Amino acid sequence: MAAKHWVTQESDIIANHHVNQPKPIRVVVLGAGISGVAFAYKARGLENVSFQIYEKNSDVGGTWFESTYPGVSCDVPAHCYTFTWAGNPDWTRVYASGQEIVQFYQQLARDYGVYEHTKFKHQVVDARWDDKAALWKLTVLNLETGESFVDSAEVFVNSGGVLNNWAWPSIQGLDDFRGTLVHTAHWDNSLDLSGKRVAVIGSGASAIQVVPTIQPTVRKLVSFHRSPSWIAAEFAGHFASQGRNTTYSEEERRRFREDPDYFLTYRREIEHGMNARFPSFYRHSDAQRQGVENVTKSMRTRLGNDPELCEKLIPKFPLGCRRVTPGHGYLEALTADNVVVETSHIAKVTESGIKTVDGKLHEVDVIITATGYVTSFVPRFPIVGLGGVDLQQEWAENGARGYLSVTAPSMPNYFLTTGPNSPISNGSLIPAIERQVDFALAFIRKIQTQDLRYVVVTEKATSEFNEWKDEFMKGMTWTGECTSWYKNGTVDGPVIGPWPGSVNHFLEVLKHPRFEDFEYTYNSRNRFRFFGDGRAVCEAKGLPLGAYIS
């Protein structure tokens, strides 16, 4: 029996526990989308960590749960839209439908206990750092009862994402329309478009999926384009012999299930194909020039070499300046007899339709606004950190300016997933989300074991990262002459969307956190108090004391 250790009373220098003993810590996570599921899975490996997820929707899935418009699907191969640790051999299509994606992530959430940690229909509406208590105080609204309450946690992980705040476009007279008005991000599943005259405003990802889906059944479709977009073939399309509609046979799925080595090789090949596109984002690269040539040729062919449509719809700006969107059947649908392509700007919406600046009135029964989300990265609610700094106000006034996509100055014990300058269009996204979660967990572990009240990234490190990022971006297509949400809807603003590098570059940068870029505030006056009673975990728990020999 081990003798009682000599430390009998704690002081402000000596702690009565062993070195690196993790103290209990509580974490609040906003969002039960893909990032929230990743956090719940990975947090299982941390001792003495409890966490609560708040989700405004009624189930797991995030943006994919909310997106139910006609034709919604993943525009990257489904096998690279899964976690590195959770491949899905049972995808039925190369490019999975939105419903299949939601079902997959909900099953993962059941398998890994996400539901037990999540309160659905609960929305965080305010977050404030209490410096005296060293806690985040979060006001949470119960969307079913209308009542609110305050929760508290040492750490706040914001996994709300960027594609979650849809808004009607700012068009004069939109409320005057007497027909049916619907947004792709808030779809009415009871809506029947058969035989209707339909206007689709927008030419982004959702429009590109909606148009070819509804075109065969509507009487007339007017497609409004404010500006052209690069419409490419499917990403990693050589894995899809039949294009977007390519399915996996039962035999193929059985082999994925029964031959894990084959399945792993297949997944890695798709990941390679997705990430190999990155050189085309260098503005003056051979890959960029070749990409422009190839996509231009493809678009001309798919538009039937119609000179008017080609002039209207093929961009003059660099490939990738705005998100390149795969569009199986989209350009072909625009050439159909029941489709009108309108590139004149919208002047206003009337009771019966849409009038353009040249005076033309398009009378329609239904207006679909496929205009996306508010993508400024500005939080939807106040997040008030040290010194009363409100991140919502700061980013609204000065633009989103984070540190390596994962945190921001003056925000103690605060971590982000898919924050500003995440690799959203650089290649395969899901591994990057996993690495962002790993980054947060590394700091949670540090806070637990080193007697820390809080950690906060320095202003200097954040400024120098953004200085480097802005200089690097000058050589990338994302700073080209186009309006883009990558630049918060501007032509020449700073790039706040993609990461300044490849996905593999991002994974390397975040692999080992730069702890030196942070300031630390301790619970005691001596930073080494956590050294404790002079013992290691193995000694305190009676474990073998020579296990370090390999």
Structural summary, described in words:
Helices cover 27% and strands 17% of the residues. The chain has 550 residues and is α/β, with parallel strands linked by helices. The protein has two domains: 25-60 and 114-165 and 375-530, 3-Layer(bba) Sandwich (FAD/NAD(P)-binding domain), CATH 3.50.50.60; 174-235 and 277-369, FAD/NAD(P)-binding domain (3-Layer(bba) Sandwich), CATH 3.50.50. The protein has a five-stranded parallel beta sheet with strand order 3-2-1-7-19, with helices on one face. A hairpin with a 5-residue loop joins strand 5 (135-142) and strand 6. Helix 1 crosses helix 11 (430-449), helix 5 packs across helix 6 (260-275) and helix 11 packs parallel to helix 13. The chain is globular and about 85 Å long. It holds the Pfam family NAD_binding_8. InterPro entries: FAD-bind_Monooxygenase_sf (IPR051209), FAD/NAD-bd_sf (IPR036188).
